[in-house]
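This is your field. Have a critical look at both lines of this record:
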Amino acid sequence: MPLQQALLPEILGGVFSHLSTPDLKSCAVVNQSWSQEATRILWYSIKFELSTGDSYNMTRACEKFARFINT
């Protein structure tokens, strides 16, 4: 892997950590590398507001993005 590709997530993370949520959402649709890093930052801290019967959608979202959760 070229050094440029190896450093890209670290550089993107540094830049993206200063962006607003709407800007991060825009970055997430640029390409796969940007999407992975923007999604990681967006999911770093999440809040759920659920209405009755909405737990199915929350479960699906959590399963899809569980790989971004650090334990």
Observations:
- Residues 3-68 form one domain.
- The two ends are 27 Å apart (CA to CA).
- The CA atoms of residues 17 and 41 lie 7 Å apart.
- The chain has four helices and no strands.
